[in-house]
Each structure stands twice: as structure tokens, then as C-alpha cells.
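Narrative of activities, Objective 1.

The group set out to show that a structural description can be obtained from nothing but a protein's sequence at a throughput compatible with the screening campaign. Below is one input-output pair from the validation batch, recorded exactly as produced.
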Amino acid sequence: MEKLIQRIKYQGQFNIIDELIEKTFEKITLTLPDNTYITYVPIYQRKEKQRGFNQAKLIAQKIGEITNQKVLSLLISTRNTRSQNGLTLEERVENVRGHFLFHHLLRYCLRQFCW
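Output recorded for this entry:
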């Protein structure tokens, strides 16, 4: 699995995402409430521009497509971080501490739809 993710992230092999998600949904039954939204963890804008994509966003979009759920960007990446690859759990937590803010859309969503 890790090798597949590396191929997606660093070699741009996006077709793997669709195949992985489709095969996963062949094996599981997922029932989501009607007011469920799919979201993803953003990457820093410069990094996304450099790569040309955000693999988490592509995964979320495919899951949204399969489950017929809306995909929303609810977090904003505030700074570039070092790669998480090879870090321990504690180092990963510290690496992203304070890294994300809630998107203004989240406040709107919560007021309008959720509660």
C-alpha cells in the first residue's frame, strides 16, 4: 500500500487512486447519513502547485463520487511543513501542530446545515 501511495504522490499515477477506492468499496458497505460531507487534508499551496495535485483531495473526490456525497474543503494549510515520511507519530503530531485553520466555509456549513 505504501508503495502505491508513493507512486501516486511522487510519480503522479492518479489512476491508482480510482482503482484503490473502487476495490475498497467492492469489499465494504458504507452507509452514510444524508448530511455527511467528505473533506480532506490540504497541502501547502506552493507544494500543491509544484506537484500539480493533492492526493488527499483526489481520494476525497473519488469517495464523494462513489458515495454521492458532497466534498468540501474545510481546512486551510497555513505553512509548509517538512515531509511526514519517516517521522514517528510524535514527530508527525509536532510537525503539523498549528498547521491548519478552519475554512470560513465550515462556519457557514455548521450554521446552515448541521445544527
